[in-house]
Structure formats: structure tokens, C-alpha cells
Q: What sequence folds into this?
């Protein structure tokens, strides 16, 4: 009898422990479909509803056993939902974030989380006021290639870094010429692409940008409906004094990929599409060391999974600092401002 009672109590404790207290909804089912699938699979989470303005995507509700709506507000106002993921077009993020904050939902939003400084400060102010958890989807922090580089830097393999460069080579020009990116009122290739590289730089340097200056052109999309720069190059002055350069090259004739060059006092890391090279010598005949890393096809899921876990475990020390999320966004906004003013612009985080 006592044994039976003990067994029932331990079973109940186990059930309580795994009661899914996070109830999620996703808006936008392009890249956002992946958010919904992650919610569905997570042991901490229940997928309540998905949303897309295209009714043809209702089929995913059947597959994922959840509700479907064409109206984002139905997710944002749903009292049973406490985590909203936003993967709509960039120009809708601000309104959907603000409404989610006011409804006290935790928020996971695709980059860029906003498009101008006015929106940026309103989001920042309201996040402070309503104290909800907030994160933007910086997937590259979990890419094995960049994790390896981070480890090399932390292990002091290149000494003190004094310069860092990175390229976001998009290689998907048709998405600018034919897709929504060319149709919404404003699109920034830095906010849409270079932001990932800026985030990596902030993470690797543990320093945030202080000021930026930029140049851009649109040679590759001039004859299309896309009316903005498709190629933007910026210099960054980090608070630590490190110099940086980032490019968002959306018209390049290459497959989609990212590169970096990181120069330190005792070594240099050169990262191309599929290779990390570590240089430890200036000698003419010296060879670089080819640093191996393992491919991880699931790396894109990791940031959202760890966000879910941090909400579930009420973990305040989440591994991406909120101030970094704001620093990379503010850097992109300053870069876009500099394209207009043609001057150095302060990054007002
Ligand atoms: N973190 C990353 O690596 C990454 C990768 C791709 C896209 N993204 C971001 O995801 C967002 C969406 O891009 P995508 O490539 O998935 O586009 P997409 O066109 O593939 O999908 C977007 C979907 O959202 C729907 N949608 C748009 N606005 C909506 C609204 N207001 N209400 C309801 N549904 C809406 C569209 O109908 C479409 O089905 C963008 O902000 C983009 O920058 C991030």
C-alpha cells in the first residue's frame, strides 16, 4: 500500500515537472514554419496556433495538430498563449511586437526586430515596462563554423584582436527582384543580412559598436522593382577600439555564404565558405592550419530551443545578452542613417 502511494506521488511529481507551461503561437509560415515545428517538438512547449495571411498554408495546422488563423491579432490576443514567435515580413514586426508586449507575451522575433530608431526606442522602453522575455533569431551564433572560431578566440589562439571583417553574401538576388523584399515600403540589406555578421562580431569581441560609416550601391537590381541598395559596406569603430568592416552583398554571384577575417596580436583567422584557416606566422613559406569543424544540420533550431528552455526554467542568465540584441539592431539603423548622411553615425544603443 505504502509502495503504491509512493509510486503515485512520484508519478504526479514527474507529470507536474513536465507540464508544458509554455504555450506558443507563430506568425508567418515561411522561415517561421521552423519555429512552429520546434515548438511542436519541444518537451517544454505546446503549439497552440499558427498564422499566415495565406489561407493555402492552413494545411500545416493539420500536420502540426494546432489551430490556424489568418489574423495575427488572434494569436497576440489569445489569453492561453504566452510565447509569440514573429516571422512575418520585416515591416510588420514592430506592430506585432508592440501588441505582444502590451499583452504580456514573451517574444521571439526574426531579424530585424524593427526598421527605424523611432520603433527601436519604443520597443526598448516597453520591454522595460512590461518585463517580457525577448529575443531575435541570431542563428549564426550556433553555426559550428562560428562556434569553432569563438572557441579559438577564447582559447587565446590569436592574442588580442585589433581588426575584424565579415561578409554576408546573400546569393539569392531573385528574392529582392521578385519577392516581398522588393515590395514592402522599406528594405535594408544590412538589417536583413549584415546584422548576423555584426552580431557575431559583438559576440566574438565582447564589445559593442560605437560608430559606423557606410557606402552602398544597387548595380545588381537597378532595373528591377527593388528600390534600395543591394550592396552595402560599412566601417565600424568598436567601443574597445577594434576596427571592423561588414558588407551585406545581396547581388553577389555566389551561393549563399558568410566569410570572416579576424586579426589578432599573435595570429589570424581567415574564414571562407567552407574552411577555417589559422595563421600563426608571417614567414613567406609558413602554412596555415586548417581547423576542422563538424557539420550540424540542426544548428538553426538551437537558439529558439534555448530561449524556450530559459523561459521554462526562469533562467535570467540567458546566453545571449539582451543588450547585444539591441546593439546589433542599433548598429544596422546607424549604418542605414550613414548611407543617407554620408557621415560617421553614433550607434545609440
Ligand atoms: N534568422 C534567419 O536566418 C532568417 C532566415 C530567413 C528569413 N528570416 C526572416 O523571417 C522573416 C520572414 O522571411 P521569410 O524568408 O520566411 O519570408 P517568406 O516569404 O518565406 O515567408 C513569410 C510568410 O509570412 C507571411 N506573412 C507576412 N506578413 C504577414 C502578416 N502580417 N500576417 C500574417 N502572415 C504574414 C507570408 O504570407 C509568408 O507566408 C523576415 O523578417 C526575414 O528576415 C530570418
A:
Amino acid at each position: 500500500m505504502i509502495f503504491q502511494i509512493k509510486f503515485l506521488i512520484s508519478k504526479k511529481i514527474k507529470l507536474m515537472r513536465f507540464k508544458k507551461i509554455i504555450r506558443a503561437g507563430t506568425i508567418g509560415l515561411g522561415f517561421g514554419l521552423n519555429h512552429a515545428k520546434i515548438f511542436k517538438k519541444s518537451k517544454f512547449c505546446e503549439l497552440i496556433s499558427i498564422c499566415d495571411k495565406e489561407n493555402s498554408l492552413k494545411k500545416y495546422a493539420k500536420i502540426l495538430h494546432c489551430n490556424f488563423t489568418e489574423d495575427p491579432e488572434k494569436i497576440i490576443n489569445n489569453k492561453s498563449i504566452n510565447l509569440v514567435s514573429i516571422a512575418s515580413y520585416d515591416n510588420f514586426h514592430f506592430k506585432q511586437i508592440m501588441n505582444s508586449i502590451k499583452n504580456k507575451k514573451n517574444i521571439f522575433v526574426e531579424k530585424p526586430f524593427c526598421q527605424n530608431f523611432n520603433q527601436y526606442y519604443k520597443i526598448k522602453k516597453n520591454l522595460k515596462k512590461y518585463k517580457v522575455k525577448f529575443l531575435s533569431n541570431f542563428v549564426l551564433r550556433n553555426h559550428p563554423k562560428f562556434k569553432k572560431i569563438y572557441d579559438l578566440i577564447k582559447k587565446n589562439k590569436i592574442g588580442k584582436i585589433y581588426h575584424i571583417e565579415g561578409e554576408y553574401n546573400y546569393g539569392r538576388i531573385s528574392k529582392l527582384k521578385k519577392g516581398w523584399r522588393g515590395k514592402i515600403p522599406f528594405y535594408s540589406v544590412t538589417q536583413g543580412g549584415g546584422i548576423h555578421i555584426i552580431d557575431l562580431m559583438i559576440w566574438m569581441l565582447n564589445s559593442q559598436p560605437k560608430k559606423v560609416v557606410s557606402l552602398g550601391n544597387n548595380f545588381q537590381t537597378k532595373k528591377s522593382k527593388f528600390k534600395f541598395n543591394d550592396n552595402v559596406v560599412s566601417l565600424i569603430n568598436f567601443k574597445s577600439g577594434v576596427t571592423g568592416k561588414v558588407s551585406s552583398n545581396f547581388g553577389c554571384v555566389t551561393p549563399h555564404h558568410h566569410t570572416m577575417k579576424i586579426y589578432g596580436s599573435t595570429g589570424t583567422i581567415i574564414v571562407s565558405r567552407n574552411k577555417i584557416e589559422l595563421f600563426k606566422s608571417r614567414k613567406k613559406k609558413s602554412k596555415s592550419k586548417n581547423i576542422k569543424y563538424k557539420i550540424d544540420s540542426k544548428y538553426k533550431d538551437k537558439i529558439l530551443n534555448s530561449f524556450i528552455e530559459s523561459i521554462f526554467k526562469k533562467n535570467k542568465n540567458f546566453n545571449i545578452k539582451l543588450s547585444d540584441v539591441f546593439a546589433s539592431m542599433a548598429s544596422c539603423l546607424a549604418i542605414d542613417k550613414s548611407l543617407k548622411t554620408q557621415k560617421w553615425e553614433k550607434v545609440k544603443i
Summary: Residues 322-341 form the longest helix (20 residues).
